[in-house]
Design goal:
The complex is a heterodimer of chains A (137) and B (67).
Chain A: H1 5-33, H2 40-66, H3 70-99, H4 109-130
Chain B: E1 2-3, H1 5-11, H2 16-23, H3 27-34, H4 42-52, H5 56-59, E2 60-61
Antiparallel strand pairs in B: 1-2
Chain lengths: 137, 67
């Protein structure tokens, strides 16, 4: 069976986002550690990895929009809900722990990583409860 | 919701993939509907009825188990 087009587009978008993310992170870290950039370029270097991850969220959003099969779309929406509940819950609880000085500070970008972990867990829950995790992510 | 999808499909000698192709959905969708794990939307239920040439109420009825 041919690979569905929305999935193919999802992988292209995700691949571009992740490539930009890795390149921006490596280059930015090097340039900052060697004090080679400052001012507006430093701002650009600092924004780029985060915006690249936003591209990954965009890829997932577009996958939901472009998936015409209603059952597969529901699986994706469930994954997004599991991811959001996990990430927002962890961020909220950890934030209060930090506030009461019971936990160390965690950089905010880790909540995006928690979201992607939740997205993966959502696929696993889909498989357990509905017998399939969908076409792939 | 209970449904007769598996029976109707078997009567015609269709595989899940055959029915999925006729409905323009994934095989996973057909399997999920047949096993009662997913209730189709009204537009998809109408498509299913058209493919089998039967009214919706002859394929789906209230209940928790697939037929």
């Amino acid at each position: 069976m041919a690979v569905p087009t929305p999935i193919r587009r999802y992988f292209v978008r995700l691949g571009v986002s992740m490539s930009v993310y890795v390149a921006a992170l490596l280059a930015g870290t090097y340039l900052v550690q060697h004090a080679l950039i400052r001012g507006p370029i430093l701002w650009f270097a600092a924004l780029l990895p985060g915006l690249a991850l936003v591209g990954a969220f965009y890829a997932i959003g577009m996958l939901i929009v472009e998936t015409k099969d209603e059952f597969l779309r529901m699986l994706l929406v469930r994954q997004v809900l599991y991811a959001s509940v996990l990430a927002m819950s962890l961020a909220t609880v950890w934030g209060f722990l930090e506030n009461f000085e019971l936990a160390p500070h965690v950089p905010a970008f880790y909540w995006a990583i928690a979201w992607f972990v939740g997205f993966g867990l959502g696929g696993w829950v889909n498989r357990l409860t509905l017998g399939t995790s969908g076409s792939c992510p | 919701m209970r449904n007769r999808l598996r029976v109707l499909r078997a009567e015609r000698g269709w595989s899940q993939q055959d029915l999925a192709a006729a409905l323009d959905v994934s095989r996973q969708s057909v399997n999920a509907i047949e096993t009662g794990k997913y209730d189709p939307s009204l537009p998809l239920a109408f498509r299913i009825a058209r493919v089998f040439g039967e009214p919706i109420e002859a394929i789906f009825d209230e209940g928790s188990e697939p037929g």
